[in-house]
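Q: Structure for this?
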Amino acid sequence: MRYSSLVGRLHSEGVDGWATLFQAWQARERGEEVIILSIGDPDFATPEPIVESAVDALRGGDTHYAVIEGRRQLRAAIAADMTARTGLELDENNVLVAAGTQNALLAASLCLLETGDEVIGLDPMYLTYEGTLRSGGADLVRVPQTASSGFRPDQAAIEAAVTERTRAILITSPNNPTGVVLNRPELEGISAIAREHDLWVIADEVYSDLLFGVEHLSIAAMPGMAERTVTVSSLSKSHAMTGWRIGWAVGPAELIEHLGALQVNINYGVPGFVQEAALEAVTEQRMAWRPMRDAYQRRRDLAAAALSAAPELRVLVPEAGMYLLVDVSRVAESSRAFSHDLFASKRVSVVDAGAFGQSADGWIRISFTIGDDELAEGCKRIVDFVRGRNAPG
Ligand SMILES: Cc1ncc(COP(=O)(O)O)c(C=O)c1O
């Protein structure tokens, strides 16, 4: 049977970056001992009061269709939070409640981009973006952020990538996998390009609560940007709610109306009891991320210190998030081979960061979504593995 041309565009390159994760899951199922440092799902439970809100809502009969663009109170609470971050005057008309950042990004791509349009994305970037953007027919143009610059954006390179077909720039701050948080001059530089070429900016801020002593700025708050920016985010990382599938898009009211109309056709909105849980999260439990952030920061420092025992490895200390990049280019022919061999010999699963884009080839990504002791043991095995490789003979 025939399929539409869409099916050929759904996949992103590099999905086999997760090869060792799938192997590790299978090994664990067989009862083998493995250490998984390759997953981006918090190891914390969703805070209890959030769970209780959902349970109360379920027991109270909140099991029917919910308002498709999201309940007014929740949208207003998300708008108030974004107002506090940006100083912009936002209300519920600027917010669409969506099934996670991923869904918000898909909706935005479909409403902003035509077949053949180009989106500039800063490489390395979250793995599924390419498939998401391409679903609507747009092309992703990757602009490298080089390892030698600490994976920071290069304004001249972004500007040089703009063509007649460019319609949008996609940024993620804090970034996955690099943990880089874009600073004011960088955001101003990107904003200037967007204004000059009349581009949209799609900004993923899903890690913006998990900061390690740096400030987070939203590009929407830069002059002349509110009308051309759609900010997507969720509670997945900040409140350990990956499985709830709830997030949002914040942007100009007209765009939000279009996203709502699209959502009627995609999933008919997010379940009411999930929205009630989200309301608890963005109001009473707004700061619930704090102990988790503190744990991630402690684990970052623990991992960086443990890995420093192998001087051949270079660690990029992240400014935010749940991951740490390690340069393995001095000890392996490729990061892919390193990940493979590491799992085969030490039963530690990491991600080949080259899966996020060529700029991160030669690096691996380690997640801190695991207890301190296991993380320490995982890092020790990586160091042993590197030492073993360098041993004479
Ligand atoms: C940068 C980035 N954006 C989006 C997502 C997915 O978020 P959500 O669960 O809100 O769809 C992830 C998950 O790892 C991510 O790293």
